[in-house]
Amino acid sequence: MKLSIVIPAYNEEQNIFPLYQKITEVLNNYDFECLFVDDGSSDNTFNEIKKISEKDKRIKGVSFSRNFGHQTALLAGLKESENEIIISMDADGQHPPEIIPKLISEYKKGFDIVNTRRIATADAGFFKRLSSKWYYQLLNALTDVEIEKNSSDFRLMSRKAVDAFLQIDEKDRFTRGLIKWIGFKQSIIEFEAPKRMHGKSKYTLRKMLRFAFDGITSFSAKPLKFSMITGILSIFAGFIYSIYILIMYFSGNTTPGWASTMLVILILGGFQLLSIGIVGEYISRIFNEAKNRPHFFIKEKC
Ligand code: UDP
Ligand code: MG
User: Fold this and answer.
1) How open is the CA angle 238-240-241, to the nearest 5 degrees?
2) Which is it for strands 59-64 and 31-38: parallel, antiparallel or unpaired?
3) Which numbered atom of ligand 1 lies nearest the CA of 39?
4) What is the residue with the minimal CA distance to atom 7 of ligand 1?
5) Cα–Cα–Cα angle for 227, 231, 236, nearest 5°?
6) C-beta separation of 155 from 83 below 8 A
7) What is the pTM of this model?
8) Is residue 278 assigned to a domain?
9) What residues pack around ion ligand 2 (CB closer than 5 A)?
10) Residue 132 to residue 60: CA distance in whole angstroms
11) pLDDT tens-digit profile, the chain (302 residues)
12) Per the domain annotation, does 226 fall within a domain?
């Protein structure tokens, strides 16, 4: 049984070697290759990978021409992988290699995809935990694919499942959703995520928001309908209000109603901007698909 371990890494120079040590320790009885995808790091990440790959033939690396993002790096790693079992994990040690044998035993039970769920994350702040919980509730309310809260991109896939996944050519990718969408027999196991070994989270607020929007807009068209519904409701409310205004007008009760005018303008203006924003999100998806550019460029391999 041969394994491929796929590890996206963005500015993780201090984490590459300790992670490599841990992986080789845990997997010394397995036949495996380890594929690091350097997502256009500006630090020494790729040099670290190169150094290790010169000594250990099981270690391979590809380096992107720039930062294309975690989800794309994951895709590149899966494309490069050659073995029967493929495991994806983070480079920062938050996906402990000690769990890998557990993933494999699930695979042996006949599952094509073994997902994982964090039961605790040592260094996730209050904001990250709460926003993540709300986000998954919203996502599941809006979409048809059921995605567990606290799911992570630490997962095992069979060759069959990876080959299916690679047939999806979508550009703005939300891997967690696509994995559910391709089907196959899937199971989920829990793990405790330790603190990041070195450095800070590479998911900036901006990247997190992008990821969150991609998740919703790639699996649900409901927000588009939401603008329609709020639009209809506003028109209805406006109609009732105009009857009231007409009654006031004909009974000679008109007063300069600055407050109510402002209120209507603000509420309607808000809904309109929101609706345009939602439409904009989907148009930007269509735009990215229509350009049909390659997902990434590889600068160097080792
Ligand atoms: N990552 C990446 N490209 C990016 C951002 C992150 O390849 O643009 C990698 C990062 O190196 C790590 C994984 O994605 O291996 C998860 O990122 P991180 O640990 O920073 O996220 P967090 O655990 O804080 O959610
Ligand atoms: Mg992390």
Assistant:
1) 60
2) parallel
3) 7
4) 70
5) 150
6) no
7) 0.80
8) no
9) 92, 94
10) 33
11) 899 999 999 999 999 999 999 999 999 889 999 999 999 999 999 999 999 999 999 999 999 999 999 999 999 999 999 999 999 999 998 999 999 999 999 999 999 999 999 887 767 778 777 888 888 888 888 887 888 888 889 999 999 999 999 999 888 889 999 999 999 999 999 998 888 888 888 888 888 888 888 888 888 877 887 777 777 788 788 778 878 877 877 887 777 776 677 677 777 877 787 788 788 888 888 877 887 788 888 999 99
12) no
Q: Decide if 261 is inside a domain.
A: no
Q: Which ligand is nearest to the CA of 70?
A: 1
Residue 124 domain boundaries: 2-220+294-301
Residue 211 inside a domain? The answer is yes
Instruction: Give the count of domains, the chain.
Output: 1
Ligand 1 nearest atom to the CA of residue 202, by list position: 20
Residues contacting ligand 1 via CB (< 6 Å):
8-10, 12, 39, 67, 69-70, 73, 90-92, 94, 201-203
Best mutation site among 203, 206, 208, 209 for ligand 1 pocket (most ligand atoms within 8 Å of CB):
203
CATH assignment at residue 73: 3.90.550.10
**Can you list the positions of beta strands (E) in 39-77?**
59-64
